[in-house]
Amino acid sequence: ETGVTQSPTHLIKTRGQQVTLRCSSQSGHNTVSWYQQALGQGPQFIFQYYREEENGRGNFPPRFSGLQFPNYSSELNVNALELDDSALYLCASSWGSFEETQYFGPGTRLLVL
Amino acid sequence: DQQVKQNSPSLSVQEGRISILNCDYTNSMFDYFLWYKKYPAEGPTFLISISSIKDKNEDGRFTVFLNKSAKHLSLHIVPSQPGDSAVYFCAARAGGTSYGKLTFGQGTILTVHP
């Protein structure tokens, strides 16, 4: 059974650019959630994808968008990057949107200069 | 508006003793609570969870206690081991939603000294 994987591990971008982060869910899981973790804080919910549809969103602007593919892998896209977008981006997978326990990947560390 | 709070940024414990990590919440709609452990350069690892219909759940050295009237939960680790040194996050999920948004606390850094 493979766990949640994310790519890339690290990324440096400049303000105004766009970025795409990728996540492969744990084997057998059909739901992916994305979180942003700023330094010294707990993860904050961005959105969840269930069966290729957005299924819940946190307090993030529309320039944060996502996709889920038929194999349940997912992408997080961020447009018009701002300095405050610098954070660790975590992907978590679960079986079903109601499943309480989510399993996290190692994260992508994004630095915006 | 911090709905889940971990008021102790850090905790230091001697190997073999008990570690107690605390978490308070404000949202009465939370019905499921989880603890995650995070090592540097890794994602959070699920440790243990508890439903709001219970007041205690045990798994080996880890026990979670829930006091709904006080809106407080705690994680007990007995005995503590140096490998337990990590950041611990409590998280909560609100019932009645169609999706699994987890709300996290800020984390507590646990250091277990040999």
Walk me through the structure.
The complex is a heterodimer of chains A (113) and B (114). By secondary structure, chain A is an all-beta fold. Chain A is built from no helices and eleven strands. The radius of gyration of chain A is 13 Å and the shape is globular. In chain B, the strands form two sheets. In chain B, strands 2, 4, 5, 9, 10 and 11 form a six-stranded mixed β-sheet that branches. In chain B, strands 1-3-8-7-6 form a five-stranded antiparallel β-sheet, with no helix packed on it. Chain B is globular. The termini of chain B are far apart. The chains are: A mainly beta (113), B mainly beta (114). Chains A and B meet through strand 4, strand 5, strand 9 and strand 10 of A and strand 4, strand 5, strand 9 and strand 10 of B.
Short structural description:
The complex is a heterodimer of chains A (113) and B (114). Chain A has 113 residues and is mainly beta.
* Series of H and E elements of chain B: EEEEEEEEEEE
Largest sheet of chain B: 6 strands, mixed
Taken as a percent bin, the fraction of beta residues of chain B is over 45%
What is the β-strand count of chain B?
11
Q: Please describe the biggest sheet of chain A, giving its number of strands, its sense, and whether it closes into a barrel.
A: 7 strands, mixed
Low-confidence stretches of chain B: none
Q: Would you tell me the structural class of the helices and strands of chain A?
A: mainly beta
Distance from first to last alpha carbon of chain A: 38 Å
Topology:
The complex is a heterodimer of chains A (113) and B (114).
Chain A: E1 5-7, E2 10-13, E3 19-24, E4 31-37, E5 44-50, E6 53-57, E7 64-68, E8 74-78, E9 87-94, E10 103-104, E11 108-112
Parallel strand pairs in A: 2-11
Antiparallel strand pairs in A: 1-3, 3-8, 4-5, 4-9, 5-6, 7-8, 9-10, 9-11
Chain B: E1 4-5, E2 10-14, E3 19-25, E4 30-38, E5 45-51, E6 56-59, E7 62-67, E8 72-77, E9 86-94, E10 102-104, E11 108-113
